[in-house]
Amino acid sequence: MRIRTLETVEGVRTLEPLVAEYIRFVCGDLMTRHGISFDAEALISGTMGGLDKVIPPLGRTFVAEGDAGNVLGMVFLRASGADAMEIKRLYVLPEARGTGAGRALVEAAMAEAVASGAVALRLDTTRNLAAAIGLYRSMGFAFRPPYPESDHFGDAVLKDVLVFMEKRLDA
């Protein structure tokens, strides 16, 4: 497995099927577990329309690839305020879970955040994504209050299912 950085909007656009799979998974999970409904197609469109935030100089996109060059997973990294960065859309294909791809993607994002001078790496996720939360906790992330730069700050619909986490990089 290797981690590769996508440097252009055109390059990140190749991940649209994976982005769509991730968003549909999260939306389906929220509906099944919590009865919360979202327009997955609108979320996919919104994500794909904001790719300039996840390429240099504003952010990064990392993909994990198998030995044959097949994509196993992805993660976006973007600015989150003046001195922090935020992980978005960490997703590993079901058949690649347990291979270390998720950890490798978070490590790549963390290394880039450190290199960029960020003092913290943040994220938001839903509390039912226990495997992701376990991964983040094992990597030193701690729960924190909602932060204003999150897309979900003050979200009345998701307030009971969201968790916010942060890893200090300056410690």
Question: What's the topology here?
Answer:
Elements: E1 2-6, H1 9-13, H2 16-34, H3 40-49, E2 59-65, E3 71-79, E4 84-92, H4 101-115, E5 120-126, H5 130-138, E6 142-144, E7 162-168
Parallel strand pairs: 4-5
Antiparallel strand pairs: 1-2, 2-3, 3-4, 5-7, 6-7
Helix pairs in contact: 2-3
Query: Which class of secondary structure composition applies to the elements?
Result: alpha+beta
Return the string of H and E elements: EHHHEEEHEHEE
Fraction of residues in β-strands = 25-35%
Question: What are the segments in which pLDDT stays under 50 over at least 5 consecutive residues?
Answer: none
By DSSP, the count of extended strands is 7
- Biggest beta sheet summary: 7 strands, mixed
What is the CA-CA span between the terminal residues? Answer: 30 Å
What is the radius of gyration computed over CA atoms, rounded to a whole number of angstroms? 15 Å
Mean pLDDT: 94
Oligomeric state: single chain
Number of helices: 5
Strand neighbour order, sheet with most strands:
1-2-3-4-5-7-6
- The coarse silhouette is globular
Roughly how much helix do the residues carry, as a percent range?
25-40%
